[in-house]
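Appendix B, Record 12. Input sequence as logged:
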Amino acid sequence: MTESGKPSQPANVNEYTSSHIQVLEGHEAIRRRPGMYIGSTGERGLHQLVYEVVSYAVDEHLAGHADAIDVTITADGGVRVADNGRGLPVEVEEPTGKSGIERELTELSFGSKPRTGYGVSGGLSGLGLCVVNALSSRLTVEVRRDGYRWTQEYEKGTPITALTRHEETSEHGTAIAFLPDADIFETTRYSFATLSERLQELAFLNGGLAVSLTDERPERPVRYHHADGLRAYVAHLNPYPPSLVHSPAIGFESENEDQTIFVQVAMQWNTWPLRELRSFANSTRTHEGGAHEQGFRTALTDLVNDYARRQRHLPADDEDITAEAAHEGLTAVVSVKLARPVFEGSTRTRLSNPEADAYVQKVVREHLTDWLDHNPNEAAAIIRHILNSSTGRGKE
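Logged structural output:
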């Protein structure tokens, strides 16, 4: 992977074909049990539809084939998501007689993306587009690929037109426009603020990716592009410079030898007592934390104690600095991208991979120790802040 979290060896466009899609079950199962796939039929589930389509586009970015995603809340209350990636496959596969587009949008498929060279995959890992289609009263897909523009229309997960080839084009990418089914969702009104927050978050997590959001109800455009990645995210979360213990934010990243896990961390201490740790796995917010958070917390507490004693800020006979004190006033973002993430529960809010715990600990110990050693004045300010924190030492 590169500095922005992209795999170091992008997948070849010819490796992404219809043959990589495996069938599990049809769209009727999704319409009968939508909560199993998107968590709820309320506002959270409604917005999850957008996130699933956007996740497909982010995967194209991570594979090295897209650098822009444009999201539009359309005047009729639907959503359109467009990217400049490779475009969904259009060739027909035997014996199904279906195009890659139709299979992706109508069959619950698992494993299509990982088998095409995606090092990681967000969303429902290959299920997202089918789920969105099944829960939409109508959906239109437009693909630019293989020298032409292609379109197809669906209603409630079922194709109502054949895949149609249009004019020649040298462009490439996929655009999906959908209208959520009012018979399924408690509300079909999208929140600009909710979508804006998540899209900005994705721009922070995927440095180099430009994400835009436009609301046609009336028009209200925003665009996010953060080359500085997670350090820009931490700066966004810490908008009051006078309260900072040190500046700029600390940031580092690392990938293991097998290229199966990529870790990015950014952190900054403040004089205020509040703390905030945001963690992500494959660009999905892990609200309940998990292995990667545990690895960060463990390594940080141990490292702060080791450094404080090594620099004689903490006498040998004094009690250790507690985890509570070490995290006093800390704002941090921990992002991991894994080839095979394991989540607890259908809502994917807690990461279980034990290797994430071990590797995050290793990365934090190595890189944060190096930063402290090379920035002695800032390091001393951090240790003084921790030692003088209101939580004190010897408390849990």
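The mean pLDDT is 87.
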